[in-house]
Amino acid sequence: MSHDLVCEAPAEEVQRAIEAWMELAGGHVRVLLISAFGDIYFEATGTGVAVVDTWGLEVRRIAESVEEFERRLEDDDWRRGILVEELVVLAGERGLVRGAGEIFAVAPHPCFTDKVVVDELRVMGLAAWHSVCVQVRAVAAAGVPGDA
Description:
Elements: H1 11-19, E1 29-34, E2 40-44, E3 48-53, E4 58-63, H2 66-74, H3 76-83, H4 85-93, E5 102-106, H5 110-113, E6 121-125, H6 126-142
Antiparallel strand pairs: 1-2, 2-3, 3-4, 5-6
Helix pairs in contact: 1-6
C-alpha cells in the first residue's frame, strides 16, 4: 500500500486522537491502519474491526475480524474507496504535503457541505483533526441556531 495513502503517526499522537472519542474511552484498541484523512481502523477486543470515521463523525464496525478486514483491503475498489486514493493524488498534484503524523483535514467539515473537494483540504496533525471532528459532531448534534 502506498505511503501516501496512510498516516504513520507517533503512538502518543494516535492515543490522543483515539481518546478524543468518548465511545472509545477506557477501551483497548489495536490500530491497524490510519488513512491519509485520519480515519483510524482498529481492532477492539470482542468487536472485530471498526473505524473512527472522521467525515461521518462516528465509530462503526466494518469487519467481523482482522482477517476479513485484510481480505477487503486486497480488493482494489474497496481499498481505493476507503482510502480516497483519487483525492490523495489530487492533493499531491496541488502541492499539499503531509509530514509525519499529519493528515488531510477538510475545512469546512463535510457534514456541513455534503462534499469534499481538493481545495478544502488542509494539512493538520492527527490528534488535532480528531479533536476538531468531535467538536463538530457536538455542534452538528445540537443543531445550528436558527435552523428550521
